[in-house]
Structure formats: structure tokens, C-alpha cells
Specification:
By secondary structure, the protein is α/β, with parallel strands linked by helices. It has six helices and nine strands; from the N terminus they run E-H-E-E-E-H-E-E-E-H-E-H-H-E-H. The strands form two sheets. Strands 2-7-1-8-9 form a five-stranded parallel beta sheet. The protein has a four-stranded mixed beta sheet with strand order 4-3-6-5. The protein is globular and about 45 Å long.
Length: about 180
């Protein structure tokens, strides 16, 4: 399983999409208590559960990690861990995956300068205020004291998504086939 972490606009989501389309990796399906949006499908976009069911899953130790975001609960379950899967995660979630000490979980940190990430956010349509806030939030979330060791650090600043994805997939295969 590939675990991708990194600040906003470091390329995580685009790499995950590339890995899915070119190497047949599937994104894990996370569980949430938020209401299903139009066009979403239970079991494809998320596993949609009640707050009671989510809390029961927490009590049964079914999650690798979980969090509350905008008043809704989100978590990735242990049964989603498998080869040829990928997850995009924050530093807290990353620590939880690393703590599993599973040799089939390969962790990557994508890094790029604030200047490049800000430029990418503006180019993708984020407002100036939102981009600036995300940069500030990332300074806290991805501060060295909040980060744990990863298997590989990948500089995504001056490379294409294709190059970064190919490098990640190659390193993933090398590590799981040792």
C-alpha cells in the first residue's frame, strides 16, 4: 500500500490519480458520518455511516486513523489496507500508518517550496486568501515536530506528475519485493 503525505499542492492527489490510471492502484475508501452528496455512491466514494456506527467502529478498533473535520467524522479502516492501494493522508494519519509497522505499507512525503505550492493553488483556482491560509496551516501541520519518518521523501517541485508517480511506483515495488 502506498501512503502519500505532504502539504497542500505538493501533488498528492494528482499522483494518486496517476497511480490509479497507469498502475491500477485503487484509492482506499474511507468511512464518514457526513451526508452523502448528490452523485456520490456508498462504497465507491465513501462508506457512509451513522455517528453511532462510527463510534461503534472506534470502540471495536476498526480504524487505522480517524478525525473530525467540519463536524463530521472520517476514518480509514484496517480492512482497507492491501497491496496496490493508495491513500492520501495528513501527518496525524501518517503516524498511525507508520505505527502499524507493516512492511507492505510504503510511506512517501511529497515536498515543494511554498512559492511553487502557492502558484499551483492559484493556477487550480483557489482564492488568494484560501491559498495563503493553506500555506499557513501547512506550516503548523507539517512542522518537523509533527512529522514522523517516512520511507521516501520526494521533491515534486520541478518534476511532472508522471515523473513523480513513476518514481513513487518504482520505489514502492522495490520496497515490497525485498
Amino acid at each position: 500500500m502506498i501512503v502519500l503525505a505532504g502539504p497542500s499542492a505538493s501533488g498528492k492527489t494528482e499522483v494518486a490519480k496517476y497511480l490509479a490510471s497507469h498502475f491500477n492502484l485503487t484509492k482506499i475508501i474511507t468511512t464518514t458520518t457526513r451526508p452523502m452528496r448528490k452523485g456520490e455512491v456508498d462504497g465507491r466514494d465513501y462508506f457512509f455511516v451513522t455517528i453511532e456506527k462510527f463510534n461503534e467502529m472506534v470502540e471495536n478498533d476498526e480504524f487505522v486513523e480517524y478525525t473530525v473535520y467540519n463536524g463530521n467524522m472520517y476514518g480509514s479502516t484496517k480492512d482497507q489496507i492491501d497491496n496496490n492501494k493508495c491513500v492520501v493522508i495528513d501527518p496525524i494519519g501518517l503516524k498511525a500508518y507508520v505505527a502499524l509497522n507493516d512492511p507492505n505499507i510504503v510511506t512517501f512525503y511529497l515536498k515543494a517550496s511554498e512559492k511553487i505550492r502557492y502558484k499551483r493553488m492559484i493556477e487550480r483556482g483557489d482564492s488568494i486568501e484560501n491559498a495563503k491560509q493553506r500555506i499557513l496551516n501547512d506550516k503548523v501541520a507539517f512542522n518537523k515536530k509533527h512529522m514522523c519518518d517516512v520511507d521516501f521523501k520526494i521533491n515534486s517541485e520541478n518534476t511532472t506528475i508522471e515523473e513523480v508517480s513513476n518514481e513513487i511506483y518504482q520505489k514502492y515495488l522495490e520496497k515490497i519485493n525485498r
